[in-house]
Amino acid sequence: xxxxxxxxxxxxxxxxxxxxxxxxxxxxxxxxxxxxxxxxxxxxxxxxxxxxxxxxxxxxxxxxxxxxxxxxxxxxxxxxxxxxxxxxxxxxxxxxxxxxxxxxxxxxxxxxxxxxxxxxxxxxxxxxxxxxxxxxxxxxxxxxxxxxxxxxxxxxxxxxxxxxx
Length: 165
Known about the structure:
Distance between the termini: 81 Å
Largest sheet: none
Number of helices: 8
Number of strands: 0
Radius of gyration: 31 Å
Strand content: under 5%
Order of helices and strands: HHHHHHHH
């Protein structure tokens, strides 16, 4: 019971400690409550004749850091897309306009004009087949599949370059 009173008497000190971590009053109160709750829960970990304020400050600091990290993880989105070249590319296509069909036809025409040995792996890849599946189907090494898809993209880009202007 004496331990509880000592912690309660340090409430104002804990308020001052929170100012080092946050300026938000509500967050400050939450941090104090979490600190007191942890201190009471783990009172058996406190060693007699040691600095109670220092122990509480350590609990508060660790609580703040853990909450901060948890909030950062909650805001972080992971993109495990292997084809990262799709990221941050503006979508300038207008397939929903009246001349959208014309654009689609041009793109399809450019794709179909590339060499056959590049076309098959490229089309399979765009249909969702994995590199190893394409390699097995065509009976060629996986490196060759990747190379052919790369070169197919380059050829299509060259053909579409004129269309861009």
